[in-house]
């Protein structure tokens, strides 16, 4: 890390990160030509890798025609085409796309649309949301209130709305008892959700909000079979909506366009971002059920929300091309195949590792969890900052990965999240696991393990 003075207010105020000066497929290039294999696409963003020629060309074409027009005056061709691409076929009943600039904005829109829907249908008493612990929905205050990441919430707790309460996540490695079957575990979580509805008064609940595969807060945690169907049933019975946050796990990352396709349910409202634009432009979207939007259209007629840069033409053109490339190059199939390889290679390398307790994920969204003791699943002392050591050593060795942890309600500890670009090769996957293996072992050595 360089210590030169920077006027950019970076996350760390003491260290300025090195500069990226180029990109090439799965590689990021730093000053001096240093090449970093981008094994996590930043934070599960760069699904097509870097400098994809088709996306650059689409952006340049759009920029030469129109970079920006405010949505209170105009729609635009790329915005209309992107919305058609995303919801023209009404996947799971989702019929409208509200195009924003990122994941947190998509979640804020989801929260507000859900609330407004109930006002419009004469149920204004519905003001409560149920979310889950060990989740992340974004850093703006509404999204942060929805999230259950104790460490991120803590400093801002007095500012966070009490409209959100949190139940146990479907995190089998830490929450499922050894004696419990998956069916029993799902049954217990469903009973807890039902009890939370009863505590709040079922007629007061707007929505349940969850990530289908939990991302950065817990490290690629899918729910056990049947969990989301149970959630759907409970919410349906009480007239509440289901909001799914696919900001990280969506847009093909798990091998299907939407992660919910693997759960046998569809949401009423969904948030997407990261893989939508693949990092080529800042863009996110809230996808909303036609049923909900039609009620508002036929009621007050307007969604009471908005941002200056929504449906930005250049961002929409970039995202549209990213999604077309995913289809044209059949990348969802590739995610399934490469995801299988990644999971196998992680299992070969870490399956018997004495400090790797769990290997989990779906598609090209896989994580390993590090534990001090495999038998008790006890995490390492957060003071060791093991995940940060892994990140630094991996980076030195030419690997960009996304370790996190030590901040999750004291139960789960450090994990390393991998989310390689969909265009990676089989050799890239092998290289990722080899480099990660070296970084994990070196980091453990450095703390005496
Ligand atoms: N939701 C999830 C599941 C995320 O992983 C993130 C970001 O990491 C967000 C929401 C917030 O997205 P953004 O950082 O684009 O605001």
Quick structural gist:
This protein has 14 helices and 17 strands. Helix 3 crosses helix 11 and helix 4 crosses helix 10. Helix content is 37%, strand content 17%.
What does this protein look like?
The protein has 449 residues and is α/β, with parallel strands linked by helices. It has 2 domains: 20-51 and 330-446, Aspartate Aminotransferase, domain 1; 55-328, 3-Layer(aba) Sandwich (Aspartate Aminotransferase, domain 2), CATH 3.40.640. Helices cover 37% and strands 17% of the residues. The strands form 4 sheets. The protein has a 7-stranded mixed sheet, with helices on both faces. A 4-stranded mixed sheet has the order 1-2-3-15. A 4-stranded antiparallel sheet has the order 13-14-17-16. A hairpin with a 4-residue loop joins strand 2 and strand 3 (35-38). Helix 12 (331-350) runs parallel beside helix 14 (426-446). The longest helix has 21 residues, at 426-446. Bound molecules: pyridoxal-5'-phosphate.
How does the SSE layout of this entry go?
Elements: E1 20-24, E2 27-30, E3 35-38, H1 41-44, H2 53-65, H3 77-87, E4 94-100, H4 103-120, E5 128-132, H5 141-146, H6 150-153, E6 164-167, H7 172-175, H8 182-200, E7 205-210, E8 213-214, E9 221-222, H9 227-237, E10 241-246, E11 269-272, E12 284-289, H10 290-298, H11 313-328, H12 331-350, E13 356-362, E14 365-370, H13 386-396, E15 399-400, E16 402-404, E17 415-418, H14 426-446
Parallel strand pairs: 3-15, 5-6, 5-7, 7-10, 10-11
Antiparallel strand pairs: 1-2, 2-3, 4-12, 8-9, 11-12, 13-14, 14-17, 16-17
The protein binds pyridoxal-5'-phosphate.
Pyridoxal-5'-phosphate (PLP) is lined by residues 43, 102-104, 107, 136-138, 211, 215-216, 245, 247-248, 273, 284.
